[in-house]
Amino acid sequence: MRKTTSPYVLQKKSKIHNNGIFAKKDIPKGARIIEYVGEKVTKAESDKRADRDLDNHSENSDNGAVYIFELNKRYDIDGNVPYNTAKYINHSCDPNCEVDIIKGHIWIIALRDIKKGEELSYNYNYDFEDYQDHPCRCGTSRCIGYIVDEDHWPKVRRSLAQKKAAKKSKKKKTKK
To answer: Which of 36, 63, 105, 173 has a Cα-to-Cα distance from 19 of 20 to 30 A?
Structure first.
């Protein structure tokens, strides 16, 4: 298959994580920027591949660990294929894009007007479970520190505050 293209984007080095996708020209709010493509797999196969990819991923790797995207209740898209340009769009806690599934296709859509040269990003919306395994590198003023769905941010903040308090308490006991 041919590499997915879009008149809006180009791939280059990213400050967030190795490779990124950047606006080649101004992108208007609401524009369908690029489709996230890959191999359509069952949920069972998707789980196997995700586990395998996580096991093979090292923290210092330049590549992302898993490129699996939920398509619907029965199928996912494994975007870890050479022709999927959209797999290089990084996570951000303050994204300029969102994902929309339209008639069985996963589209990256502009949340706002995006200026030429801006890196494209969306919130990967990971679950709260194992959130600490997914540190965020977006560096925005809104960064929660982890790649997690914004609905879970209050739980993350509570969890981090509890850990900080427990650590403080432990220090006090050690000083006595």
So the answer is: 105
pLDDT of residue 1: 76
> Of 50, 74, 44, whose CA–CA distance to 64 is shortest?
50
CB 124, CB 91: distance < 8 Å: yes
Element (H, E) at 84: none
Total-model pTM: 0.86
Determine if residue 73 is left, alpha or beta; phi over 0 gives left, psi from -120 to 50 gives alpha, anything else beta: alpha
The burial class, CB within 10 Å (0-12 / 13-18 / 19+), for 164 is exposed
CB 145 within 8 A of CB 136: yes
Q: What domains sit in the chain, N to C, each tagged with a CATH number?
A: 1-123 (2.170.270.10), 125-176 (no CATH)
